[in-house]
Amino acid sequence: MRLPLIPPAELNTEQKSLYDSMRKGIASNFNAFQVEREDGALMGPWNPWLHEPAIGKAIWDLTLAMTANAVLPDNVRQIAILVVGARYDAAYELYAHVAVAEKEGMSAERLAALVADLKPTDLSKEENVAFDFSYALSRGGVLPEPLYRLAIATFGQHGTNELIYLVGLYALVSTTLNGFNVPVPERE
């Protein structure tokens, strides 16, 4: 880890406000995996965001908006997030969202394929579109028009917009995790 975890007692006023907001959001949306140390210091992408609270708050606000206004089903969202995490080989991202997907009942075979950057063979129509869309978009360049049209037909304009923003958000999260070499907590 390139940035030390910040114990809550050492947070400045701006960091403390962001910390409080993140802990509240984490408790309701990100509770399937370890997010804090015993002393309350936040791990994962939250720690780097606390080190730069003006930027961290903007990213956190986007994360909350993406969660609060989600129209895509959770299984579709997790497919997209895991595709991006695998593309970036972001260890904490994969650790966290494998835990979420396991909690939601995703099979071990499907998870193994996704984290290996492979397409699972048992995807539903919607999951298949989400995989192909996220896979293509996370590789750079313009999303192919037929894939964009298929997403519109499958998810509607709002759902397709959400999928684009979701891939972008988790590319940012993965880049943050990799840039700061954020470690994975020990799994029990």
From TrEMBL:
Coiled coil: none annotated. This is Carboxymuconolactone decarboxylase family protein. One of its GO terms (molecular function) is peroxiredoxin activity. Gene3D superfamilies: AhpD-like. Residues 53-131 form the Carboxymuconolactone decarboxylase-like domain.
